[in-house]
Task: inverse folding
């Protein structure tokens, strides 16, 4: 079984790049709401992972449709199962792992 990226690199964690500068990692999941036990208004969608609780093995799903789906801590194995499902048209769900570019130095003053 492949490792879920949020387990090794929770969302919004910093990591060093080759140049020693820090960058932020983010994970977004396309998951089945039915599998995680949410009320079904739609089958699923992408939502950002806001964090990982290692002692409880849970991830924080920061749902973007907060009117119907508040943010929720969900068991990581359950979220992993919810990601490994197919949509109604047969397409597989999945996750995105994004990395923000490292901060850049401001341009040097070119006045002479």
Result:
């Amino acid at each position: 079984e492949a490792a879920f990226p949020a387990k090794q690199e929770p969302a919004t964690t910093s990591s060093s790049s080759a140049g020693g500068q820090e960058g932020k990692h983010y994970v977004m999941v396309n998951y089945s709401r039915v599998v995680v036990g949410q009320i079904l208004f739609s089958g699923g969608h992408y939502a950002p992972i806001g964090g990982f609780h290692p002692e409880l093995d849970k991830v924080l799903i920061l749902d973007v449709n907060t009117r119907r789906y508040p943010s929720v801590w969900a068991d990581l194995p359950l979220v992993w199962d919810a990601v490994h499902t197919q949509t109604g048209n047969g397409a597989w769900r999945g996750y995105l792992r994004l990395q923000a570019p490292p901060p850049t130095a401001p341009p040097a003053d070119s006045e002479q």
